[in-house]
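Convert to structure. Protein one:
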Amino acid sequence: MRTTSNDTLQDSARRAKDSSSPDYDVAIIGAGPYGLSAAAYLKGKGLGVRVFGQPMDFWANQMPAGMLLRSPRAASNLADPRSALTLDAYESAVAAKPAARVPLETFVSYGRWFQRQCVPDLDTTLVSHVERDGPTFIVTTQKGSALRVRRIVIAAGIGPFQRRPDVFASLAPQQVSHCYEGRKVAEFAGKRVAIIGAGQSALEWAAILHEAGSNVEVIAARPALRWIGMHPRLHHLGPLSTMMYSKYDVGPAGISRLVAAPKLVSYIPLPLRDRIRTRAVRSAGSPWLIPRLAAVKVSVGRRVRKAVGVGDEVQLNLDDGSDRRVDHVLMGTGYEVDISRYGFLSADLTAQVRCLNGYPDLGAGFTSSVPGLHFIGGAAARSFGPLLYFVAGTKFASEELAAYIHRNRGISQ
């Protein structure tokens, strides 16, 4: 009798579960900057690595066209062991003209070029389930195939962590969305859009939509908008500036230099570490957005008290008693890490991970409380500091992760 493709997939899954010999040393879930950089370093150590995910998917499909990276060029490089596959190297390879502010489209193309160099065997199949099986892990894909690995590295990004205020919960999907949801700019042309928030994502969406012909209002709880780097003279004081700021430009003077050393940050007591982290990434916009927002209505010191759908429209009631009638609400309300929202992790496995308010509590080599399970990227920021929210953290994360796994390669979990 001829077997069907489903029978073959099920047989593959059974063989993976029945075999005691792992197929790979490491499986990486996520093919963004952190997953690709980690793969480059782990492969450089001679480890067997399998990477799952669509390359640069979050950046390509959940960010608005026309966006510019907030990070400076020096902080926008993915990491490889030879430091050869930089943004400059990509632009040189494709004869692209460098830009002071990196366009989203350039960054996505760069990441995919990096992937082709370092992870040509990328498995673009999405992972549906990860479970622990004795000292190893079973990874099952959405196609039903499965493999056994010694270690799992979660580099799945912040996409699932969107913060959605309850006040908007009753609105229909066509009436409300999140900045990280991947809506196309053209959808909002000619529409009235209320953007909630005062961070980079909210303000850049406001500028982009205004320029695309939308009628935009920014509604922010803050009493005034904040802007990053409004003291440029502090960056031109020679050696003194070098002492105050790192090239990654994350955080204000002093804090910028501290958070550039994630290993050091990890030794700071948690309450102080949290204060440093939140201060470094508080809601603020890049100053090059200021002229682009000059004609955009901004209501500061205001909160939405009630939001209800009225036909195809949305009526917003603010805490000053005023009302707005709009076609769409766009939430630039950031994100909150909660690894239980990674739907591919089994409930049993998630329950075993010791967490700090949704963040995994990580040790050396980005190890969680479950032996062999590692988290890198934004999920690691509470343990290693705010640099891990940014592309600039890929070098530290990849070096630490690869060195730890290589060092402990022969040690049973």
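Protein two, convert as well:
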Amino acid sequence: MKELLQTTQGLVILTIAGLFVISLFIQLFYYLFFYLRLAWYKPVLLKTTAEPFSVIICAHNEAENLEKFLPLVLQQDYPEFEVIVVNDCSDDYSEDLLKKIRLKYSNLKFTTIKKDEKFIHGKKLAQTIGIKSAKYETLLFIDADCYPESDKWIKNVSESYQTKTEIVLGYGGYEKAHGFLNKLIRFDTLFIGMQYLTFARAGLPYMGVGRNLSYKKNLFFKNKGFATHVRLQSGDDDLFVNETANNKNTGIVISPESITRSIPKKRFIYWLRQKRRHHTTFGHYKNAHKVLLGAEPISRMFFYSCFVILLVLNFFPLFVLITFIIRLIVQLMTLYFATSRLLEKDLLLYSPIFDVLIIFTGFMIIFSGKHRNLYAWK
């Protein structure tokens, strides 16, 4: 019986060691095959003409943010563009503010959706109204609480459009501030950005963020807009890209002048709610994308769990530590290039800690219940 118990224990330990090695190789695959693509990314600049853009901003009670950030969009250094603000049922001073700003900027257009208690809607209606009113074929989206890092934002997005390009994915980060939560939010956003940008580079585009996203107006109507997921609160950006993007029609833009910034949540619970809302779209992704996106955090969880267990059991500790260090070196090397390209260098030293914490927040989102408010704005 003792020998049998020892044999069973041995098999369990060997199984854990096997999972540890397998999860290592899966992790290295993601870092070296996907994420490291940011290191050698170089834009292809073949265009000689600057096509006109329609920049669309949907806003609900965003008067303060519009006052601060809208001029940064309107003052872009670009020959021909319009900015369309859809003021969606706001009860602050947004409409009066927009009227005032329009007196100064002739390229600003805005429309106001009046509140109707019998008809509750979400952001997708406002987005659709903005798209239908756009004068130009090439659309560019940013949120009301966001701003471009540079007045060359539109120019950089424009240069990423080639002959067959219909979608351009950009990076939308968050403002730097003091505190641990700010760094956690920014790292999570960095990692997601690193994923969707490098997956697109690998010919597997699966999402984009509405804080920095561009696509053709004709593509929107060919896809019948948001018809397949109109009842979902989220999805005006990631689900649309998931449905329409492919390895031929999707480009990315990565440059300091192409980045947009947003105002991050100030409390953990608010950020968790935002993450939970965004997670409602995951089940609607293509199956191949769900497998690829699910395998990475699962393998990461197994890697860390098996690492701790094997150290506690004193199973070839030198081998276990060397294996852990190999992944850490590859991770830090890859994140060095990512944080440099996406202007998030201060996050590099915190990355090993956040790499673990993101796993726990992911499980909190999955097991904290469904988000039921389907029509709440944003």
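The beta strands are 53-59, 81-88, 108-113, 138-141, 146-148, 167-169, 172-174, 213-216, 250-252, 260-262. The first helix runs from residue 2 to 34.
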